């Protein structure tokens, strides 16, 4: 089962909708709003291929070089020896998609979208006045 989650951040996604088929993940065109410097993404697709003997983990990271955001896909064969982790040279901003494909073809994982934060609710404070 693939879970859908959302997390709020000032650097939020517009578009970048994810559809997961039997053997592929497709991400629609979109952007990540980064103050006055948005990062644009074209339609992206990657295959989900099972291995005959080991589970395979597909992690799609969003990385940044301080000026722009971009995707990085890592494919890891899970052999119980080394846990998967991002070890690249760029700053990790967000783990967007993580899907484990088991040898029988079943899938589990998550898609975590970044949404725009909701405005803070202002609470009315009781104004108490006293006459002097």
From TrEMBL:
List every stretch annotated Disordered: 105-132
| Basic residues composition-biased segments | 113-125
Question: What domain of life?
Answer: Bacteria
**Under what name is this protein listed?**
Uncharacterized protein
Species this protein is from? Salinibacillus kushneri
């Amino acid at each position: 089962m693939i879970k859908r989650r959302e997390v709020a951040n000032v650097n939020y996604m517009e578009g970048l909708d994810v559809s997961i088929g039997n053997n592929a993940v497709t991400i629609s065109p979109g952007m990540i709003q980064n103050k006055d410097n948005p990062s644009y993404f074209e339609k992206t697709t990657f295959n989900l291929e099972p291995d005959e003997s080991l589970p395979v983990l597909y992690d799609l990271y969003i990385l940044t070089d301080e000026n722009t955001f971009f995707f990085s896909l890592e494919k890891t064969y899970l052999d119980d020896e080394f846990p998967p982790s991002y070890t690249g040279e760029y700053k990790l901003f967000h783990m967007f998609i993580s899907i484990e494909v088991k040898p029988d073809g079943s899938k589990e994982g998550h898609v975590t979208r970044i949404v725009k934060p909701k405005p803070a609710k202002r609470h009315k404070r009781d104004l108490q006045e006293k006459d002097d």
